[in-house]
Amino acid sequence: MLTKKSIAALIKVATVGVAISVLTACGAPAPKTEIAYAEATLQAAQNADLAQHSGVELERSSNKLQQAKAKMKAGENIEALRLANEALAVANFAQAKSQAGVAKTTESDMQKSLDVLKNQLK
Amino acid sequence: MKKFTEKKLLIPAIILTLASGCADLQKTQGLLDAEKAYARAAEDKSVAKYASSDLGVANATLMRAGIAECETEMTSLAYIGNVQVETAIKKAEAQQAMQNTKNLIEKKEELVAASVLAKKESAQNQLGAMQERTAENEIILAFGKVEFVTGKVDLVPGVVGGVDLLADYLNANKTKKVTLSGHTDSTGSAERNKELSQQRADFIRDVLVSKGVAASRISSIGYGQSQPIASNSTREGRQKNRRIAIEFGR
User: Fold this and answer.
1) What is the distance in angstroms between the Cα of B82 and the nearest Cα belonging to chain A?
2) B210, B216 contact by CB (below 8 A)
3) B172 Cβ partners below 8 Å, 6+ apart?
4) pLDDT tens digits along B198-207
5) CA of B55: how far to CAs of B48, B69, B82, B89, B134, in Å?
6) Which residue from A23, A89, A110 is facing B84, i.e. has the nearest CB?
7) Residue of B18, B32, B19 whose CA lies nearest to B65
8) Would you say the ipTM is above 0.95?
9) pTM (2 decimals)?
10) Which class for B110: exposed (0-12), middle (13-18), buried (19 or more C-beta within 10 A)?
11) What is the Cβ-side half-sphere exposure of residue B134, based on CA atoms within 13 angstroms?
12) Which of B159, B138, B137, B139 is nearest to B148 (CA)?
């Protein structure tokens, strides 16, 4: 039979437990999937950057990914998730930057080729 | 009872305040900057055309950043949102460059096609001109055999081939014009010869008209004995001088 006192004590314990959970987020799962996805995206971006347009961004993404792994290992899963998401965003940016670089080079080459043709036809 | 309730609610109230204390978080400078970058990109026509969905992703991230519960989360989401804006811009740049390249390729193909056509036309024109010259030379050569009876307008029978060739040629080439120049040898008076040469040239003109050539395309002039091409002292020379010279024009 629970007394008023024991009920009050139970509520206190439960509330403190929930609060600690909320504040420390110790219940967050390890972001293994997010890290794996970011890693795969980074790998694809590295493979696509043949013309080396995005060296700085690829390195930044790689660093964030390493930090994310270290945080996950240390059990800091929320921070690990944030870093993984940042690494993913930077890897996507690196890939887009590489594609833009290649596309601009192709455009420039085509413009030169057209100019040469125009001169030949004069 | 009242005292117990207050005491019971005191700890949760403090904890809830701590937990939700970030709800009224002010936007960080990073988020404000990212929002400005987003606004600039949203005004870019190229981004709107080629990377609107990417920009939409960035917008969603920045909205999440705006309602983040703590600064660390806000900072991270602002960073990601900013990178996503930059990604949208780069994707738009890539698409724009690819479109530009496509346009340049089309322009190049048009130039090549125009050049090939021009060369073909030039070759055809050269061939046409050559064929024209050949046909005209043939007619001029045939006209060299046209003979008139001395002192008369009548053609010597059997040598009318040149006139027929000329009529066919003029009928086939409607833009062509011809000048017929009548000449005589020195037999008889110069005045009579001039009159005779004019009559001979007019005679050929009339033959051409009778074969369907418009008179407006034919000029006929009599030069008499003034422009001999051979000696009038021999029979062969006088025969050469009795002639109709032709000249083509447009």
Assistant:
1) 9
2) no
3) none
4) 998 999 999 9
5) 8, 24, 10, 8, 72
6) A89
7) B32
8) no
9) 0.64
10) exposed
11) 6
12) B159
